[in-house]
Amino acid sequence: MSSNQLTLAPAPPSEAAERVRLEVREFLAQELAAGTFTTHVDTWLSGVDPEFSRKLGAHGWLGMTWPKEYGGHERTAQERYAVTEELLAAGAPVAAHWIADRQSGPNLLRYGTEAQRKEILPRIAAGECYFVIGMSEPDSGSDLASIRTRGVRNADGDFVVNGAKIWTSNAHHSHYGIVLVRTGPPGEGPRGKHQGLTQLLVDLSLPGISVNPIRILDGGHHFNEVVFTDVVVPGDMLLGTEGAGWHQVTAELAFERSGPERFLSTWPLLAEFGRRAAATGDPAQLAVLGRLSSRALALRQLSLRIAAALDRGELPDIPAALVKDMGTTFEQDVVDEVRRVVDVPASLDSPDPLGRALAEAQLHAPGYTLRGGTNEILKGIVARGLGLR
Amino acid sequence: MASDQDLVVETVRDILSGFEPFVLTPERPWDEGLWSALAEAGLTGVGLPEEAGGSGGELADAVAIVRTLASGAAAVPVAEQLLVAGPALVAADLDLPSPEEPLTVAVEGTVAAEPSDDGDGPGRFVLTGTATDVPWAGVARHVAVLATPPAGIEGAVLAVVDASGLTASSAVNLAGEPRGSLVLDGVGVPGALLTPARAATLRARYALTRAVQISAALEQVLAWTVQYAGERQQFGRPLGKFQAIQMELAQMAGEVTSTAALVDAAVQALGRGEDTVVLAAAAAKVRAGEAVERVAKLAHQVHGAIGFTQEYRLHHLTRRCWSWRDEAGTELAWSRTLGAALVAAGPDDVWPAFTAVV
Question: Which residues form the Acyl-CoA dehydrogenase/oxidase N-terminal domain (chain B) (predicted)?
C-alpha cells in the first residue's frame, strides 16, 4: 500500500472543539431533561424532528464550516466533528437535516452556482431545508454507474427527468434531492459507464414526482422510492458540470463514508450497556465495554484524520471507504457482543431500556453495512488502494 | 512523519540491512551484533536526555526507532530501553546505566522492597522475591524492577538491578524471545518511591510500547502479504486478483490502519504528558491485540503453507505479535481497566469519559 493513501496526518485536539463540545453536551442535557426528545439508536436516519433541527440551526451548529455569506459560521472541521459526535452519542433526533448538512451543503459549496448557494445554503444552516441523496435505483444497488434514470435536454435547455430512485431516506420530509441521472451515452471500456452521468438539483415539489414509502424491519418509515415522470428540471439546476457526475459523486462519498455516524449509530446502546456494567460491576461486562470502546476509539482517530484531510482539500476516498467498512461492522458487533454478556432479551416493548436499545439496534443492524455502499464494494475500493485491481 | 524521524528511520534501516532475522535459540537468544551496531551509532540512547548519558532527541525519534526495529523482527531490547525502563529511571531521578549496555524492565512477580541502610547512602532498597516474565532476562545487563513498597506506603518502588550476578530462568515467548524470571535474594540496590499514578504510568508505557511494536509489525505483515498476493500465481493468475483474497487483504488493511491511528494518538498523549495516557495506552494495547488476532490469521491464510514454515520470513513477525499482545498486561486485563474507567465517573458519564481518553 502506498503509505500516502492510507497514512493521514494526525489531528491534535483543539480547544475550540472541546469548548463547543461542552456547549452541545449542556444543551442536550437540558433538552433531555425537558423531555423534548428521547434517546434512540440510529437517529441520524430515523429521528426526524424539524423543530429540533431549527434549534440546532439557531445555535449555529449547522453549516458550521461554511462561509458566513451563505449562512455558515466559518468554524473548523474539528468543531463540527465535536458537535456531530455529541448529537449521535445522545441519540438526538437529527435525521431531518443530516444529509443536507453533511453532504448536500458541501456539495453545493463545491459545485453549485452562486444562485444555488445563495438560495439554499442559508436555509440548510437555519435547519429549515432538507435533502435526499438521489443515487441508488431499484436495479442498480451498489452498481451505481448502471443507473437508468435519464435527464434529456429539451428545446428550452431544461432537463426532462424520467426514472426512479430508491432507498431515499426521508424524501417525504425533504425539499430537494441531488439526483444522479444519465444525460449522455456511456463511453468505451470498463470505466466507460462512468461517463455521461450528471447531478441535478431537484426541487421535490415539482410536478411529476411521487414519493412512495418503504418500511424497514422495525416498522419505521424513512426509506422511500421516488419516481420521476416527465419532471422538468430547469437547466440552471444543473449541479456542477454536465457529464462529470461520477467524479462529483465520488468526492461526495468521501464525506458520506468517513463521519462518526459510521461507528456511533449504536452508541446509545453502548451507553445503556455502560449504565448496566456500572451497576453490576461485572468484570465480563466491563471487559466487553473496554474492548468495544477501544475499537470505537481507533475508528474515531481515523475518522478525525480524514475530517482534517477533507478540510485541507484532500480527497481521502480510500481511508473513507475503510472507516465505513470497519465502522459499520463494529456497529453490528456491538449488538452481538453486548447481548452475549447481559441477561436481557431484545424487545421494542421491553420494560428495560437496555432491552429496547438492543431491539432497536438489532432491527436496524442489516442497514449499517449496506447504506453508503455495501461493505463488499468498500473492501473493493480498499483493495484498489492496495494496488490489487 | 517529520523529516527528522525519516532520517532516524533511514539510519536504522541501513544498520538493519546487515542483520537478517534468525530463529532464536537458547544458545543464541538475541542479536548481539545488531545491538553493538545500534549502540555504536548512539541509537540505544535516543530520547533519553544527554545529561543523563543518553543521546537526546524526542520521544517521536525513539518511537520511530522502535517501530523500525519491530518491523524488522530485530532481537534486541531497544524498545524496553528507549520507551520503558530508560524514561522511567530518568523520571524517577535514578542514575541511568550506560545506554550502550542493554537495559530492560520487570513489572511482574513478587518482588518486595525494603529500605536499606547498607551504608551506601539514601535511596537504597533491599529487593527480595522473584521478578517474572522479564523481557530479555539473561541478556540485559541492567533491569529496572518495579517492586512492592514497604508496608504502609502506597505506590511502588522502582529500583535498578545489575543483572550480571543473577541467573535467569530459560523461559521464552512464542517467538523465542527470552522472558525468564530473576530471583532477587536480598540484593541491595538504588531505588526510588513512585506514587501510584507514576507506577501506573510506567505499566502503561510498557503496554503502549508493545502496542507500538505490534502496530509496526502488522504494517509490515500487510505489506508482505500484499506483495505475495501480487506475485504468487494460482489457477493462472495472481492470488490478489481473486475477489475473496482482496476482501481478506482489505480487512487486514482496516485493522492495521485503525490500530496505527489509535497507537499514534496514544503516543502523542504520552508525549504531552497527559494524565489520560494510562487509558489511551489501555485502549491501544487492546486494539492492537485484537488486530493481531485477525491480521496474523489472514496473513498466514493468504501465504498458504510456505508462510507456515520456519524458512519463510512471515513467522518472525506473526510469532512476535502473538506474544506481544499477551505481554505487558493481557488484553483482558487492559480491557477491564478501560471499561471500569469509563463507568467510574457515574452511569451516565460513559460518553464524556470515552471522549476524554484520547
Answer: 5-78
